[in-house]
């Protein structure tokens, strides 16, 4: 309810300001007929003139929220003219204090101080001319003026404090949304890399095995049977990894199934054997002292080797051979996967999602990947993954 009322007041500021100041306006206009005070020049203020002057002083107050400085200046100038003509004080002169409060509550400190000083000066001028300067009366009336001025300053400070809280809340919400979008984009990219590596490798192996089976089905049925068995095994492996990825996507805070762990360095020998069974001879060597690596880095190493061998299967051509060398050093792990095939058609830095996935995976751990055709023929991928303090 209060929220709807606040929203309605923001849509109708002039109406709200008029309703807020209406008690003051009614009081001043009703007392205008008692304001026929004699002037110091001997003239007499009629009730009609006092009523008109009161309306002139009070009318600007209805727009004090949108134009507080202009309203205060207008009322102050009318009051100054009233003082210069020697007219008596009216109840409508309270409009000066209302306008001063509006300036103090809505403008900067400089304008608030200026409005307070003008109101005090007006009080001093009025008392000196019509009531004779009396320090005690001036002090008591100044306390009243200063209290209204301080109330305006307090409201201004409170308003700015609430605005800062709202701004910080909106900024925090915006930052939270941005972080959520960034996290979602990173997760989509990670899943895209995983899907590409899983599908591209396993499907490439299945295609090679299927081609071999089609050629050998007549001349060598046993070889064709082994190829079909390899297709079946590779397909099951692909389905298992796809199931693991889909399971990760479907996990929530409730029941979670147990899925196979991510492949790592220990599974590289099985990967090389699988690709070798597909008809690609591979020399697999490990140099240096193997060390325990985080699961994330092990997955990066596995996927880079997998993607490089998949590219060799697709682009190396018949009779190609591959070499996989993993070197453990003090600064990290260096992967070198090369082949003597026809080489990929893409130049370094271009190509499909596979090379891009290699670059992204290595970059996540501060590593680098250099991939491109070899001068003597074939293709080579060199990846450097820092570990420990180097990472």
From TrEMBL:
<dbReference type="InterPro" id="IPR036890">
    <property type="entry name" value="HATPase_C_sf"/>
</dbReference>
<dbReference type="GO" id="GO:0000155">
    <property type="term" value="F:phosphorelay sensor kinase activity"/>
</dbReference>
<dbReference type="InterPro" id="IPR055558">
    <property type="entry name" value="DUF7134"/>
</dbReference>
<protein>
    <recommendedName>
        <fullName>histidine kinase</fullName>
        <ecNumber>2.7.13.3</ecNumber>
    </recommendedName>
</protein>
<keyword id="KW-0067">ATP-binding</keyword>
<dbReference type="Pfam" id="PF07730">
    <property type="entry name" value="HisKA_3"/>
</dbReference>
<dbReference type="GO" id="GO:0005524">
    <property type="term" value="F:ATP binding"/>
</dbReference>
<feature type="transmembrane region" description="Helical">
    <location>
        <begin position="75"/>
        <end position="103"/>
    </location>
</feature>
<dbReference type="Pfam" id="PF02518">
    <property type="entry name" value="HATPase_c"/>
</dbReference>
<keyword id="KW-0547">Nucleotide-binding</keyword>
<dbReference type="GO" id="GO:0046983">
    <property type="term" value="F:protein dimerization activity"/>
</dbReference>
<keyword id="KW-0808">Transferase</keyword>
<dbReference type="InterPro" id="IPR050482">
    <property type="entry name" value="Sensor_HK_TwoCompSys"/>
</dbReference>
<keyword id="KW-1133">Transmembrane helix</keyword>
<feature type="transmembrane region" description="Helical">
    <location>
        <begin position="109"/>
        <end position="126"/>
    </location>
</feature>
<dbReference type="Pfam" id="PF23539">
    <property type="entry name" value="DUF7134"/>
</dbReference>
<keyword id="KW-0902">Two-component regulatory system</keyword>
<keyword id="KW-0472">Membrane</keyword>
<feature type="domain" description="Histidine kinase/HSP90-like ATPase">
    <location>
        <begin position="296"/>
        <end position="389"/>
    </location>
</feature>
<dbReference type="InterPro" id="IPR011712">
    <property type="entry name" value="Sig_transdc_His_kin_sub3_dim/P"/>
</dbReference>
<keyword id="KW-0597">Phosphoprotein</keyword>
<keyword id="KW-0175">Coiled coil</keyword>
<feature type="coiled-coil region">
    <location>
        <begin position="162"/>
        <end position="189"/>
    </location>
</feature>
<dbReference type="InterPro" id="IPR003594">
    <property type="entry name" value="HATPase_dom"/>
</dbReference>
<keyword id="KW-0812">Transmembrane</keyword>
<dbReference type="GO" id="GO:0016020">
    <property type="term" value="C:membrane"/>
</dbReference>
<feature type="transmembrane region" description="Helical">
    <location>
        <begin position="138"/>
        <end position="155"/>
    </location>
</feature>
<feature type="transmembrane region" description="Helical">
    <location>
        <begin position="44"/>
        <end position="63"/>
    </location>
</feature>
<keyword id="KW-0418">Kinase</keyword>
């Amino acid at each position: 309810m209060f929220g709807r009322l606040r929203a309605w007041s923001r849509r109708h500021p002039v109406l709200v300001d008029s309703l807020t100041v209406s008690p003051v306006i009614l009081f001043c206009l009703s007392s205008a007929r008692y304001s026929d005070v004699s002037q110091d020049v001997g003239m007499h203020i009629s009730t009609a003139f006092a009523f008109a002057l009161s309306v002139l002083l009070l009318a600007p107050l209805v727009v004090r929220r949108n134009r507080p400085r202009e309203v205060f200046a207008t009322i102050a100038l009318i009051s100054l003219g009233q003082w210069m003509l020697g007219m008596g004080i009216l109840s409508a002169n309270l409009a000066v204090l209302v306008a001063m409060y509006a300036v103090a509550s809505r403008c900067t400190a400089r304008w608030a101080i200026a409005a307070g000083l003008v109101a005090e000066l007006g009080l001093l001028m009025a008392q000196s001319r019509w009531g004779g300067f009396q320090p005690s009366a001036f002090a008591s009336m100044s306390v009243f003026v200063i209290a209204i001025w301080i109330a305006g300053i307090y409201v201004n400070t409170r308003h700015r404090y609430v605005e800062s809280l709202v701004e910080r809340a909106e900024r925090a919400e915006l930052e939270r949304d941005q972080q959520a979008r960034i996290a979602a984009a990173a997760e989509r990219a990670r899943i895209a890399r995983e899907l590409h590596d899983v599908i591209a490798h396993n499907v490439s192996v299945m295609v090679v095995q299927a081609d071999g089976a089609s050629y050998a089905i007549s001349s060598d049925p046993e070889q064709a049977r082994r190829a079909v068995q390899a297709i079946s095994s590779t397909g099951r492996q692909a389905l298992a990894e796809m199931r693991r990825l889909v399971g990760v996507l479907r996990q929530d805070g409730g029941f979670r199934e147990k899925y196979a762990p991510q492949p790592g360095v220990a599974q590289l020998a099985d990967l090389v054997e699988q690709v070798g069974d597909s008809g690609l001879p591979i020399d697999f060597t490990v140099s240096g002292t193997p060390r325990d690596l985080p699961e994330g880095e092990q997955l990066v190493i596995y996927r880079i080797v997998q993607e490089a061998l998949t590219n060799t299967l697709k682009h190396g051509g018949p009779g190609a051979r591959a070499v996989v060398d993993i070197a453990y050093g003090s600064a990290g792990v260096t992967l070198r996967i090369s082949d003597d095939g026809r080489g990929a058609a893409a130049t370094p830095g271009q190509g499909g999602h596979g090379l891009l996935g290699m670059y992204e995976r290595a970059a996540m751990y501060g590593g680098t990947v250099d991939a491109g055709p070899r001068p003597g023929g074939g293709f080579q991928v060199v990846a450097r993954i820092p570990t420990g303090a180097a990472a």
